[in-house]
């Protein structure tokens, strides 16, 4: 009860959210279809490739930002992880609402 999972040190090891996995999967499939169905290869292949790479960079950036927020504890908990407010207390150090059974604050890590 109240045990908090060990947070990874690197943003790369933070779990990828489901929505980002879906966007990546759709991007890979749609991207390949678009790349292989470019009508005038000589003319449009370079912009298509650049767009493909640029979007990959955008996905990577999203994962980076999400990972950083995850490690900093700034992401809202998933609805399933949420504790009813009756079972919450305030952290003595940072003042955030934390589950009453937790031994340390998920946000600032101080003992409660
Ligand atoms: Zn705290």
Overview of the structural elements:
The chain is mainly α and about 110 residues long. The protein folds into 2 domains: about 15-70; about 80-110, no CATH class. The protein is about 45% helix and about 5% strand. It contains 2 helices and 2 strands. Strands 1-2 form a two-stranded antiparallel sheet. A hairpin with a 6-residue loop joins strand 1 and strand 2. The radius of gyration is 21 Å and the shape is elongated. The structure holds zinc ion. Zinc ion binds near residues 91, 94, 107 and 110.
Index terms:
112 residues, mainly alpha, two-stranded antiparallel sheet, 2 helices, 2 strands, 46% helix, elongated, binds zinc ion
Helix percent reads 40-55%
Low-confidence stretches: none
Reported for the largest beta sheet, the result is: 2 strands, antiparallel
Structural class category: mainly alpha
Count up the helices. Answer: 2
Placed side by side, the strands forming the largest sheet appear as 1-2
The radius of gyration over CA amounts to 21 Å
Strands, count = 2
Bound molecules: zinc ion
* Structural domains: how many: 2
Mean pLDDT: 84
The N- to C-terminal Cα distance equals: 14 Å
Mass-distribution shape: elongated
**What's the helix-strand series?**
HHEE
Strand content: 5-15%
Short description:
This protein has 112 residues and is mainly α. The protein has helices at residues 18-36, 41-72; strands spanning 88-90, 97-99.
